[in-house]
Write a structure and sequence with these properties.
Layout: E1 15-18, H1 20-24, H2 26-37, E2 42-44, H3 47-60, H4 65-78, H5 101-109, E3 114-116, H6 125-130, E4 134-136, H7 138-148, H8 150-164, H9 168-176, H10 180-190
Length: about 190
């Protein structure tokens, strides 16, 4: 992002790198990706990020490898332009946790505007900002996106509920644990 504003400029094309933690929980992943598929932003991830998703789903959630392979293949088919190859070297002072340096490398390699992660404490937000990259939690990102496109984002959530045979309140309950501010905004809008 060229300016040093702390606001996401949704009037321009926005490129967003989703960290692995945002792609693990199915309800959150689905809403984030449906928003990208609807054209509200361009999604990016790296092979390392998808490897982390695989590891978390396998080791922590005990999902079968064939289901994980199916998920990752579906992500790559649905978003063929999302994969970013990380060849850029970046200063290590952009992160607090060196294990997350690959996330910043991917962001720099593809001129990403925003990194969305639940692990904001692993990154140096001030240094990323100076490098032209904004850092957002999934909740803050979705709240900001919703504030710019309230009717459209509400429809994304309504469609998700319908597609999965859930009610909207059920979908909101699935999301509440991960993005409570977004759910509150949606509930106010839908009431």
């Amino acid at each position: 992002m060229a300016s040093l504003s702390n606001e996401i400029d949704f009037d321009s094309p926005v490129v967003v790198l989703l960290d692995a933690c945002t792609l693990v929980v199915s309800s959150l992943r689905d809403v984030l990706l449906r928003c990208s598929a609807a054209g509200f932003y361009q999604v990016r991830w790296s092979p390392t990020i998808l490897d982390e998703v695989r590891g978390t789903l396998s080791d922590r959630i005990s999902i079968a490898d064939n289901r994980i392979d199916h998920l990752c293949a579906a992500l790559e088919r649905a978003f063929p332009d999302a994969k970013v190859e990380c060849s850029e070297q970046v200063p290590p002072d952009l992160v607090v946790d060196a294990d997350d340096l690959h996330v910043v490398q991917a962001a720099v390699a593809d001129d990403v505007n925003v990194i969305v992660t639940a692990n904001v404490r692993h990154f140096r937000e001030d240094k990323l900002h100076d490098a032209g990259i904004l850092l957002r939690t999934p909740d803050r990102f979705l709240v900001e996106l919703f504030s710019h496109f309230p009717d459209e984002i509400a429809q994304v959530v309504v469609n998700r509920a319908s597609d999965l045979g859930d009610t909207v309140p059920e979908t909101l309950e699935f999301l509440r644990q991960h993005v409570p501010g977004f759910v509150r905004s949606l509930e106010s809008h839908l009431s």
